[in-house]
C-alpha cells in the first residue's frame, strides 16, 4: 500500500510570523496504491509572545496506524558546520510545481479522507513483486470539500479561528489566547512579498538532497496534490548546487553533473592511482577537497561513505526511502528500471519496504550493495549536539554490504528473495619449482605423482577458504596442486563459488585466467594490492573484533574453533607450513568484516576441512589427523573436475536442461536432501563395508514401499529447515551482537519485519514438530543398520551433540516449551512475542505497573465526570496527544470559566479538550512504562530466538536424519524405477586380492541418461569384463557415431552409481572398489592460457599417467587426434604400453588408429573389441547401419564419410572425398610389408610369362626390392 500522510513541520519562532511548511512523507507497503489524507481542516498559526521558544513539529491527527517501535520522529533539523549559516535564511524544500511565494501566515487546508486509487504507477515497469515500488510524478488529486467533523491538534503555539469566506462558522478551530490579538487571515489570492528577515530553521523532508529558494509556496484554500515521488529529506542532504530549481527537468543518463566532472569521469583511488595502475585500489575513491568544501554536510556524509566503498552501490536511508546519487543512481535506474528525479544531479530511490526486491536485482546483476542506515533518532542527535560545539548531522552507518558471494543477514533482507547459492572463495598460492626428475615415471612412483610442464616437474601450494555465507560454513584446505590446477578446479566445480576475494600479489596471473574460465559468472573482487595478507593480520583481526565470541551471556567466551586451535599455537603463533590457508582465511574474514557479517558467521564455529582429491598431496588433512591421533584412510572415491564434467555428473549451470546423472537419481522431496544427494554424488564411497550399509538401506526401502511413501508424503514441500535455522541465528543478532549497527538502525516497517521473523520462527517450530511426529510414528524394526539408527529416538540427555551423527534426538520437551510459552497467532498479528504470565518476571512487573497507571487514569476520568455531573466527558486523542479530557461545549459555557488546572489542548465544533497536571504526570509515567515494555518485548523476542538456537546441534541432527532418509528413498526410487528400460541390479563388491588384478564385470549395462539411439531406436545394452580372468585393458574401435564414447561413459557412470549405494541399470554387476576415475574425452583448446588442443590432451594424459593406481578406472577416448597420424599413433602405443604393463589399472581405450592395434593382438593384458555395424549397398553407395553392440575383434574402417553424409555434406564433395580416401588407402597399403610381398610375387609371375631369362629376372627383382 502506498500511504500519503500530510505532516506539519512547525518552524522556530522568529521576530516575524512563523512560517509553516507542509511536507510530504511517503510510506510504502506491498505495491497497492491507496491515498490516505488524515485531516481536512483549516487553521492558522500565529506568533507566540514568548521569545526564543521552540515550536514543536506536530503531526496532524490522522487515521490510526501502529507506530513502529524504532521509528524516529519525522522531523530533523538541518545543521551545517558553518555557524554563519544559521544567520542566513535556510532554504526549504517544496514541490517544483508549486509557485514560489511566502505568505506571512499560511493557511493550510488538509486533504480528503482515504480514497483508493486505481491509477497505475509508472516508475518501475516490474509490477509482479509484492515489493514493487511504482511512483508516479503525475498523479494528482483534487480536494474539493472539507470535513467539519475532523479534529484539530493544538501545538504549543497559540491559534485563533480563521475567518475566511470559504470556511464554515461552525467548523472547529484552535483556541486563541486572550492575550494575543487577532490578526486577519491572509487571502490566498493576494500575493505577498516577504520582508527580509532571518528565516527560521525549518526541518523538512525532501525528495532529493537539494535545496530550493527560501520562499515558501503559497497555499491555496484547495491545495494541489503533491507528486507522489516527492518526499521529505533530512539531515542536510539538500545541496544548493543540486537543487531542483524552478523549471528543472528530468535529465537522461549521461546528462547529469557527474557525467561532466573530470574526476568522476576518470576516478582515482585514495592513493591517486588510475585504474590502469597495477597498484590501483578498486574499493576507494579520491574526492578533491575543494569539491567537498562546496557540498553541504549531508552530501559530505554521503561522500565520506562513498570514498571507502567506491566499488559498492550506496543505498542511503533518507526518511523512509533509500536514496542513490551520481554514478550509483545511474546503476539503479538502469538495473531496477526506475526513473531519475528532477535536477542536474543524478538521483533516484525507492521506499524501505522495496529494499529486498531492488537490492537483490542489483546483486544478481553483479553489483555490491551497501546499505547505509540512520542509526539515531533526531532527538538523540539533538542531545548529542547539545553537548558539542560542532553541530553534527544525524548519524548514519553502513549496516550491511551484500554481494554475489555475501548473503544479506540484516533486518530488511528476505532470505527467500536471495539466490540459493552465495559462496565466497579466497585463494592464496605459493609456487614451488622442483628440479627435473627422471623421464621414466615408472621408476619413481612418488616423484612421478608430480605433474609435468615443459619437461620439468612443477607444483604449487594452494591455500583455499570457501565460505557458504547463507549458512555460515567455512571450508579450509591447503594442498599441492599441479600446473593445471586440477585439485583447485575440482573444488570450484563442487562448490561453484559466486564471488572470489583475490589479492594480486597472492595469485599467478594464469590462476586468475583459470577462475574466469571455470566460473565465468562469478564476481572477481580484488582487494587493495598494497595491503598485506599475512597470517598475523588474521590473529589481529580476530582479537580486535572478538570474531569467535558473542555478546550472549549464556554462551562461553574465549573459545576458538577446534580446527584453528590446531594450526595456530597458543593463538599467537600460526604454523608457518599453513601460511597459505591462514592468509586465505584472512582475506575472507576481512571481506566479511567489511560487509558487517564476519562476527555473525564466524561466532558459529562452523569450520570444516576441504576433502581434497588426493590425500597424499593434502598438507592440512594429515596434520589434523596426526593431532587427533587418527590413521588417515581413503573413505571416498576421487572425482576431479575433468571427470565430473566429462561424465555429466552434475547439471550444467549454464544449461540446466542438459541431462545429468544427478537428475536421473534425484527423487528427493526436501531442499536439504537435494544438497546432501549432490554431496554424495561428488564423493562416492570407497570402503566396501560403508557401501554395503547404504545398499542394505536402499534395498530395504525398496521392499518396504510404505516407508518410502511415508517419507514422501510427510516431507514433500517442507520448508528449508537449514535455511530457517540460519535465519534464526540472524534474528538473534540483537542479543548475540549488541553493538552491531543494524540494532541501532531506525526502521519504519519494523512491525512488518518483526512479523516476518515470528512467522519464520513459528513455521520452524511447526516443521520440527512434524518431523518428530513422523519419526515417532514408525514403530517397526529394520534389518538395515542405517535405518535402525535413523528411526531410533534417543533421549535428549543421551543424545550426542555431534551434528554429523545419524542419531535422532527426542526434542519433544523443548518443542512443547516453545509451543506453549506464547500465543503464536497473537505474536504474528502484533509482530512481537508476548510471553505468557510467569514466563518473564521483569516483563510481568512492567505490565502490572502499566495496568496500575491505566487504572489511575480511568479512575481520574470517573472523578471528573462526577465533579462536573456529566457522563459525556471522555478521553480523546492518540499517540502523544492521548488522554485529552473532551468536554461538551455546553458544559464549558455553563461553567463560564474552566478551573485553572485545565489547560486547553484542542477544540472541535461542540467540544473542547483539556489536559491537567495530574493527567500529564500519569501520562508521562505511562509513556515511560510503555517504552520499557516495548523494549522488554523486543529483547524478549530476541531472547526466545536465542534460547531456541542454543539447541542448534540437536536441530541440525534432526535435519541430517531427514536429509539422509530423503536421499536413501531417492536412491530407492531410482533403483526400483530405474530408467524404465529394464531392471536394476544390486552391485556385488569384492576385495582386490594381493597381487591380483581388480575386477569389473557388467552384463546388459545401459547408460541411465541416454534414452534413445541416434536413429531414435531403443538403447542397446552391452557387456564389459575387465580384470580377473579377462584382460584389464580393452581397446575399442568402430565407426564414427557407433557408440564408443557412450559405452565408455556408461561404464564409468555405473561405477559411480554403485559406490554411492544405488542399484545400477544392468542385469548384473561385480566390481572391486574404484579409488579414482580418470577421463580423457573430447578436444578443446585454452586460448587464454596459450594451450593448444593437443597440449591439453597431453596434460590430461600426464595427470592420468602420474596418479592412477591398480584400483583406478580409466576411460580414454581417441587420444592423439590433435596431431599428425604418425605422432598420434606413437603416443597411443606408448600410453597403452605404460598403463597395461606398469600401472595395470582397468582401462577402456577407444581409437581410430586401427593399424597399431595389431601390435597388441597377442598381449594378454589387452583385449580388443569394436562397435558392430551393417554395411549395405544402396543406389551404388555404401550405407552403414550402426548396431551399437560391442563384439570382439577390430573394426577395419571408421566410415567417416558415412557421418559426413548424415551431416548433409553435398554429394559432389563426398564423391571427391571417396576418391581421395581410396588413394590414401592405396598409398598407405603400398608401404606395408604384406602388400610389397604380394606385388613382388605378382610381378614375378607376369615376367615369367614373358619368357625372360632367369638371370635377368633375378637381377631385376633384386633392383626393385
Automatic annotation (TrEMBL):
Basic and acidic residues: compositionally biased ranges: 46-62, 72-88
Cited PROSITE patterns: DNA_MISMATCH_REPAIR_2
Pfam families: MutS_I, MutS_II, MutS_III, MutS_IV, MutS_V
Compositional bias annotation for Acidic residues: 140-152
Residue ranges of every copy of the DNA mismatch repair proteins mutS family domain listed in the record: 1112-1128
Compositionally biased intervals (Polar residues): 89-98
Ranges of biased composition (kind: Low complexity): 198-225
GO BP terms, alphabetized: mismatch repair
Region (Disordered): 46-244
Family the UniProt entry places it in: Belongs to the DNA mismatch repair MutS family.
Protein name: DNA mismatch repair protein
Organism whose genome encodes this protein: Blastocystis hominis
Lineage: Eukaryota, Sar, Stramenopiles, Bigyra, Opalozoa
Amino acid at each position: 500500500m502506498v500511504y500519503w500522510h500530510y505532516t506539519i513541520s512547525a518552524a522556530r519562532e522568529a521576530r516575524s510570523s512563523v512560517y509553516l511548511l507542509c511536507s510530504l512523507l511517503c510510506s510504502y507497503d506491498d505495491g497497492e496504491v491507496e491515498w490516505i489524507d488524515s485531516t481536512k481542516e483549516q487553521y492558522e498559526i500565529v506568533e507566540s509572545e514568548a521569545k526564543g521558544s521552540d515550536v514543536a513539529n506536530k503531526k496532524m491527527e490522522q487515521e490510526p496506524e501502529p507506530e513502529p517501535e524504532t521509528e524516529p520522529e519525522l522531523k530533523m533539523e538541518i545543521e551545517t558546520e558553518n555557524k554563519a549559516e544559521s544567520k542566513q535564511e535556510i532554504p526549504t524544500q517544496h514541490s517544483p510545481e508549486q509557485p514560489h511565494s511566502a505568505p506571512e501566515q499560511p493557511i493550510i487546508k488538509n486533504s480528503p479522507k482515504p480514497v483508493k486509487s486505481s491509477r497505475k504507477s509508472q516508475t518501475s515497469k516490474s509490477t509482479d513483486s509484492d515489493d514493487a515500488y511504482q511512483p508516479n510524478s503525475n498523479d494528482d488529486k483534487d480536494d474539493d470539500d472539507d470535513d467539519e467533523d475532523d479534529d484539530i491538534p493544538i501545538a504549543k503555539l497559540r491559534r485563533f479561528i480563521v475567518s475566511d469566506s470559504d470556511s464554515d462558522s461552525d467548523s472547529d478551530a484552535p483556541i486563541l489566547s486572550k492575550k494575543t490579538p487577532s490578526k486577519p487571515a491572509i487571502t490566498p489570492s493576494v500575493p505577498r512579498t516577504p520582508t527580509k528577515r532571518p528565516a527560521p530553521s525549518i526541518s523538512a523532508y525532501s525528495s532529493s538532497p537539494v535545496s530550493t529558494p527560501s520562499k515558501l509556496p503559497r497555499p491555496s484554500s484547495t491545495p494541489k496534490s503533491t507528486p507522489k515521488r516527492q518526499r521529505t529529506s533530512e539531515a542536510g542532504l539538500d545541496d544548493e548546487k543540486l537543487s531542483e530549481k524552478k523549471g528543472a527537468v528530468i535529465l537522461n543518463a549521461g546528462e547529469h553533473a557527474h557525467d561532466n566532472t573530470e574526476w568522476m569521469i576518470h576516478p582515482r583511488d585514495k592513493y591517486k592511482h588510475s585504474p590502469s595502475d597495477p597498484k590501483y585500489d578498486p574499493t576507494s575513491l579520491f574526492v578533491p577537497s575543494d569539491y567537498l568544501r562546496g557540498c553541504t554536510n549531508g552530501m559530505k556524509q554521503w561522500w565520506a561513505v562513498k570514498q571507502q566503498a567506491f566499488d559498492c552501490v550506496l543505498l542511503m536511508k533518507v526518511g523512509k526511502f533509500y536514496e542513490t546519487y551520481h554514478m550509483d543512481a545511474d546503476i539503479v535506474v538502469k538495473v531496477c528500471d526506475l526513473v531519475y528525479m528532477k535536477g542536474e544531479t543524478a538521483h533516484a530511490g525507492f521506499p524501505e519496504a522495496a529494499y529486498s526486491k531492488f537490492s537483490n536485482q542489483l546483486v544478481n546483476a553483479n553489483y555490491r550493495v551497501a546499505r547505509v542506515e540512520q542509526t539515531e533518532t533526531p532527538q538523540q542527535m539533538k542531545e548529542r549536539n547539545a553537548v558539542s560545539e560542532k553541530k553534527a548531522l544525524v548519524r548514519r552507518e553502513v549496516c550491511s554490504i551484500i554481494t554475489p558471494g555475501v548473503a544479506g543477514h540484516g533486518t530488511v533482507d528476505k532470505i527467500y528473495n536471495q539466490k540459493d547459492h552465495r559462496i565466497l572463495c579466497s585463494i592464496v598460492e605459493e609456487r614451488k619449482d622442483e628440479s627435473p626428475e627422471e623421464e621414466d615415471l615408472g621408476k619413481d612412483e612418488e616423484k612421478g605423482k608430480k605433474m609435468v610442464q615443459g619437461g620439468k616437474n612443477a607444483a604449487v601450494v594452494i591455500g583455499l577458504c570457501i565460505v557458504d555465507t547463507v549458512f555460515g560454513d567455512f571450508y579450509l584446505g591447503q594442498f599441492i596442486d599441479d600446473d593445471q590446477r586440477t585439485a583447485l578446479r575440482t573444488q570450484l566445480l563442487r562448490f561453484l563459488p559466486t564471488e572470489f576475494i583475490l589479492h594480486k600479489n597472492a595469485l599467478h596471473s594464469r590462476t586468475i585466467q583459470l577462475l574466469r574460465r571455470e566460473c565465468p559468472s562469478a564476481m572477481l573482487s580484488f582487494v587493495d594490492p598494497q595491503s598485506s595478507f599475512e597470517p598475523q593480520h588474521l590473529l589481529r583481526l580476530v582479537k580486535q573484533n572478538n570474531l569467535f565470541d558473542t555478546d550472549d551471556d549464556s554462551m562461553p567466551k574465549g573459545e576458538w574453533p577446534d580446527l584453528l586451535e590446531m594450526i595456530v599455537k597458543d593463538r599467537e603463533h600460526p604454523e608457518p607450513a599453513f601460511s597459505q590457508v591462514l592468509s586465505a582465511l584472512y582475506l575472507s574474514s576481512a571481506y566479511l568484516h567489511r560487509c558487517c557479517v564476519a562476527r555473525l558467521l564466524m561466532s558459529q564455529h562452523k569450520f570444516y576441512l576441504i576433502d581434497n582429491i588426493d590425500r597424499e598431496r593434502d598438507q592440512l588433512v594429515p596434520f589434523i589427523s596426526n593431532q587427533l591421533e587418527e590413521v588417515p584412510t581413503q573413505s571416498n572415491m576421487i572425482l576431479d573436475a575433468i571427470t565430473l564434467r566429462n561424465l555429466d555428473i552434475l547439471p550444467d549451470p549454464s544449461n540446466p536442461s542438459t541431462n545429468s546423472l544427478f537428475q536421473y537419481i534425484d527423487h528427493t522431496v526436501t531442499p536439504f536432501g537435494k544438497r546432501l544427494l549432490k554431496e554424495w554424488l561428488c564423493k562416492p564411497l570407497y570402503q566396501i563395508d560403508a557401501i554395503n550399509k547404504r545398499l542394505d538401506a536402499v534395498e530395504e526401502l525398496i521392499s518396504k514401499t510404505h516407508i518410502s511413501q511415508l517419507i514422501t508424503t510427510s516431507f514433500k514441500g517442507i520448508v528449508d529447515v537449514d535455511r530457517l535455522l540460519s535465519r534464526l541465528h540472524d534474528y538473534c543478532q540483537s542479543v548475540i551482537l549488541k553493538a552491531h549497527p543494524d540494532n541501532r538502525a531506525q526502521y519504519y516497517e519494523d512491525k512488518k519485519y518483526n512479523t516476518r521473523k515470528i512467522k519464520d520462527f513459528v513455521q520452524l517450530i511447526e516443521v520440527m514438530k512434524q518431523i518428530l511426529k513422523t519419526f515417532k510414528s514408525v514403530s517397526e524394526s529394520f534389518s538395515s543398520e542405517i535405518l535402525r539408527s535413523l528411526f531410533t529416538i534417543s533421549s535428549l540427555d543421551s543424545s550426542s551433540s555431534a551434528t554429523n551423527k545419524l542419531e535422532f534426538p527426542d526434542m519433544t520437551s523443548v518443542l512443547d516449551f516453545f509451543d506453549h510459552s506464547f500465543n503464536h497467532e497473537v505474536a504474528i498479528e502484533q509482530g512481537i512475542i508476548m510471553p505468557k504470565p510467569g514466563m518473564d518476571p521483569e516483563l510481568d512487573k512492567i505490565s502490572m505497573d502499566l495496568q496500575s497507571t491505566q487504572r489511575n487514569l480511568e479512575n481520574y476520568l470517573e472523578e471528573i465526570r462526577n465533579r462536573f455531573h456529566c457522563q459525556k466527558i471522555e478521553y480523546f486523542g492518540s499517540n502523544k496527544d492521548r488522554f485529552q479530557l473532551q468536554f461538551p461545549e455546553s458544559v464549558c459555557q455553563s461553567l463560564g470559566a474552566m478551573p485553572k488546572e485545565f489547560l486547553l489542548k484542542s477544540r472541535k465544533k461542540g467540544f473542547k479538550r483539556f489536559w491537567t497536571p495530574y493527567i500529564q504526570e500519569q501520562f508521562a509515567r505511562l509513556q515511560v512504562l510503555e517504552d520499557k515494555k516495548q523494549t522488554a518485548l523486543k529483547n524478549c523476542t530476541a531472547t526466545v530466538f536465542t534460547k531456541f538456537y542454543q539447541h542448534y546441534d540437536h536441530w541440525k541432527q534432526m535435519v541430517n536424519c531427514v536429509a539422509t532418509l530423503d536421499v536413501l528413498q531417492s536412491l530407492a526410487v531410482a533403483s526400483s524405477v530405474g530408467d524404465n528400460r529394464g531392471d536394476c541390479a544390486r552391485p556385488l563388491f569384492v576385495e582386490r586380492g594381493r597381487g591380483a588384478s581388480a575386477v569389473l564385470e557388467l552384463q546388459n549395462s545401459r547408460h541411465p541418461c541416454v534414452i534413445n539411439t541416434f536413429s531414435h531406436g531403443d538403447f542397446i545394452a552391452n557387456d564389459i569384463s575387465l580384470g580377473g580372468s579377462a584382460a584389464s585393458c580393452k581397446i575399442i574401435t568402430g565407426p564414427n557415431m557407433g557408440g564408443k564414447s557412450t559405452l565408455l561413459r556408461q561404464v564409468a557412470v555405473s561405477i559411480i552409481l554403485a559406490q554411492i549405494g544405488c542399484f545400477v541399470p544392468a542385469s548384473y554387476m561385480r566390481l572391486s572398489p574404484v579409488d579414482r576415475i580418470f577421463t580423457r574425452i573430447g578436444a578443446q583448446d585454452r586460448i587464454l592460457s596459450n594451450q593448444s588442443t593437443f597440449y591439453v590432451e597431453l596434460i590430461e594424459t600426464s595427470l592420468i599417467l602420474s596418479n592412477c593406481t591398480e584400483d583406478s578406472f580409466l576411460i580414454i577416448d581417441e587420444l592423439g587426434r590433435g596431431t599428425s597420424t604418425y605422432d598420434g599413433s606413437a603416443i597411443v602405443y606408448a600410453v597403452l604400453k605404460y598403463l597395461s604393463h606398469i600401472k595395470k589399472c582397468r582401462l577402456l581405450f577407444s581409437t581410430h588408429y586401427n593399424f597399431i592395434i595389431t601390435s597388441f593382438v597377442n598381449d594378454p593384458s589387452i583385449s580388443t573389441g569394436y562397435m558392430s555395424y551393417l554395411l549395405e549397398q544402396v543406389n551404388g553407395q555404401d550405407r552403414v547401419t550402426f548396431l551399437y553392440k560391442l563384439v570382439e575383434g577390430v573394426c577395419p574402417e571408421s566410415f567417416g564419410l558415412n557421418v559426413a553424409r548424415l551431416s548433409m555434406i553435398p554429394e559432389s564433395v563426398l564423391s571427391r572425398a571417396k576418391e581421395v580416401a581410396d588413394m590414401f588407402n592405396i598409398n598407405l597399403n603400398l608401404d606395408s610389408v604384406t602388400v610389397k610381398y604380394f606385388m613382388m610375387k605378382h610381378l614375378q609371375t607376369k615376367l615369367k610369362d614373358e619368357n625372360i631369362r632367369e638371370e635377368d629376372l633375378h637381377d631385376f627383382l633384386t633392383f626393385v626390392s
